[in-house]
Amino acid sequence: MSTADLGLPVDVPSTALFTDRYELTMLQAALRSGAAHRHSVFETFTRRLPAGRRYGVVAGTGRVLDAVENFRFDGPVLDFLSNESVVDDTTLRWLADYRFTGDIWGYPEGEVYFPGSPILRVEGSFAEAVMLETVVLSILNHDSAIAAAASRMAVAAGDRPLMEMGARRTHELAAVAASRAAYVGGFRSSSNLAAGFRYGLPTIGTSAHAFTLVHDSERDAFTAQVESLGSGTTLLVDTYDVATAVRTAVEVAGPELGSVRIDSGDLLLLAHRVRQQLDDLGATRTRIVVTSDLDEYAIASLAAAPVDAYGVGTSLVVGSGHPTCSMVYKLVARGASDAPDAPLVPVAKKALGGKTSVGGRKWAARRLDREGVAEAEVIGSGPVPPDLVDRQLLVPLIRAGEVLAREPLDTARTRHITARAALPLSATQLSQGEPVLPVEML
Amino acid sequence: MSTADLGLPVDVPSTALFTDRYELTMLQAALRSGAAHRHSVFETFTRRLPAGRRYGVVAGTGRVLDAVENFRFDGPVLDFLSNESVVDDTTLRWLADYRFTGDIWGYPEGEVYFPGSPILRVEGSFAEAVMLETVVLSILNHDSAIAAAASRMAVAAGDRPLMEMGARRTHELAAVAASRAAYVGGFRSSSNLAAGFRYGLPTIGTSAHAFTLVHDSERDAFTAQVESLGSGTTLLVDTYDVATAVRTAVEVAGPELGSVRIDSGDLLLLAHRVRQQLDDLGATRTRIVVTSDLDEYAIASLAAAPVDAYGVGTSLVVGSGHPTCSMVYKLVARGASDAPDAPLVPVAKKALGGKTSVGGRKWAARRLDREGVAEAEVIGSGPVPPDLVDRQLLVPLIRAGEVLAREPLDTARTRHITARAALPLSATQLSQGEPVLPVEML
């Protein structure tokens, strides 16, 4: 079966081409100079959180492992690189054998991070490590942005479930990754069938205005839905008049009606009115689901309203105003010479316009106070202070090319809840502020 | 070869699962009620442009055609839907035979649009048309957002080439679509190899700070690059001291050095200094490429600087502040009864909280003044006024399920330049303002 037969809207046969051209031309030049074989340490970090955010959320790590494992230059890819004269024949031969054989350490998925946190460390020859830059950053920058927004929404929603419904607002495959990242950040389910298929996420759905409009009356539509999907279904009640729709809904489904959805208007006011009406009709266990351009602030503003679940679309998949993180992938140390056992020397670009990097292979740890509350993100490249040895954040993800750290998505989701709970209380304020932990560079 | 073998980070075997679950449960209920077979007209439009934007840019149409053609429910997908009890067996059998057999009309790719412009009209049975909602919106909302940002940057850049370099800032496959949309909006090339592979876009690249840092000196790095890639290459000159680097670059490559890239600092100041230095060194034809968080405003501010090309990353792939459009897919007309020849009746949700829709199958035309400048977007559902017949915007894209309107990407790119040029002059002001054309609903 050719890739085109799959019907995917993009038929790139591996992850190897999710790569900026310069990675491969640098490889070619470094193969020639010999620097390609120098042992190199790259670190992924951000210099700043999005304005006002208190913490970042690592997401996409599991997808990074998949991408590294599938970073292969096969026939069609090599033919393309050759036909386009991207690199020379020596380099093509090198690429044909490419497998990442180095080590990757990182913050585990769901962990929180701060400016400078080395959330992923890739170590190997310059040649094998530099090439992973683009795809590693694509995944972490996207997925972490979504997870950070999801986490804020989860804080605002408290115990009420959040449903991800943003597929239609972002690229069709970004949407699948967004569902996954939202789950890590605290969402409960997704409308996106591909996310269910690919990641086993629970999928949910209600119905659209079109379903009501295609029938001759709202009653016909509700009857069709209840007959087909059962009285536990969710009926959409704002196509015409909400009060009429709620009355019709309970008449059609009975008081065991599962839920009603409100998708427009003043949600606070409508939720109260609809709750009262449902209770008056005896549908006291019918739940109220609200949707309609919700973000963490709108969710918080509904905390006192009788709402049972939130459906969130646009603001989630665009990271609630911050659709990308500013993570970079920087060479921080390399062999002092081309000899394979050469000692590592730290390297860094000179600061110009705020683009500072700190050289050296780093460890990171989170220091807790006596009550067990995090008080600082401590990052260093020397020996780890004894009191921080057990609080280190980086874990081995890939060793000598072997993936070590696959885990169920629920593990990452639970880890995020735990990590966030250990932050100072102000972490979960929605208002703009500084990162909730200071970063100490040792 | 299984989809997993492809190494794609997502292995959804067709476009059919890029779909919200409710599309399929609505289908099930409509199959039972009979409404599934009613002839239906869905229109895609936006109620508003992003705040301050003067026009929108249609992009992704070619990808929509691919997605519709590959919207198929094959074995693994049907098994998933069955195992998860998404829909019943009757519905699964219907899905197994699914092929879109209706008609799609739309604004051609690259055309500009305004609030209410019916940029895509999908017509067929309710069942076959409703299911395309999610994937159609994903593609158009994403790609049009990128193209709109690209178009503004292209206006700001004038005749200077724009290079797309945003892969690392967005989802790895969204990045490929973003490269494509940027090209439609006026970019010249992309760093993204997958975009070259998939869409034949010209790919370009320079080198990274890591390449300089992995060598023992900047001179070693420049020598390696020039020996491997030729003196026409682009040398990155801001790793340590820019003036030193420029001198070294010309010493190593000679005055025929292709380009230097500046990626940090005060680009306006540095461009002037570097130009002067290059000229003094006899490298009068060496070009200056600037990168570093450029957006349309930064590009405009460099108009008077001696810059030869711009590389744009983050701000492009996040739509320069507007990463999605607010396009919706609404049922606007349907058969008056279940009879196949029933006349169409317009339908619309009642306005609540600004979510207005206008019922009826619509045409759209752009009225020009005597000088040939566009003066209004005219939209109606009745007969087309004679003077607007030749100015209609919707073209047939799919007829009876057959794709009619494949075209090279350059056609869309050229169309956009032509369409934008016919707008009033204020269209290309970067400052915030109202949509440049009024919309008249007839």
Automatic annotation (TrEMBL), chains A, B:
InterPro entries (UniProt xref): Aldolase_TIM, NAPRTase_N, Nic_PRibTrfase-Fam, Nic_PRibTrfase_pncB, Nicotinate_pribotase-like_C
Post-translational modifications reported in the UniProt record: Transiently phosphorylated on a His residue during the reaction cycle. Phosphorylation strongly increases the affinity for substrates and increases the rate of nicotinate D-ribonucleotide production. Dephosphorylation regenerates the low-affinity form of the enzyme, leading to product release.
Keywords of the record: Glycosyltransferase, Ligase, Phosphoprotein, Pyridine nucleotide biosynthesis, Transferase
Pfam families, alphabetized: NAPRTase_N (PF17767)
Reaction equation(s) it catalyzes: 5-phospho-alpha-D-ribose 1-diphosphate + nicotinate + ATP + H2O = nicotinate beta-D-ribonucleotide + ADP + phosphate + diphosphate
Gene3D superfamilies in the cross-refs: Aldolase class I (3.20.20.70), nicotinate phosphoribosyltransferase (3.20.140.10)
Keyword Phosphoprotein: yes
Domain Nicotinate phosphoribosyltransferase N-terminal per the UniProt entry, residue ranges: 17-141
Listed EC numbers: 6.3.4.21
Protein's pathway: Cofactor biosynthesis; NAD(+) biosynthesis; nicotinate D-ribonucleotide from nicotinate: step 1/1
Class of this enzyme: ligase
Function comment: Catalyzes the first step in the biosynthesis of NAD from nicotinic acid, the ATP-dependent synthesis of beta-nicotinate D-ribonucleotide from nicotinate and 5-phospho-D-ribose 1-phosphate.
Family recorded in the similarity comment: Belongs to the NAPRTase family.
Protein name as catalogued: Nicotinate phosphoribosyltransferase
Organism: Streptomyces polygonati
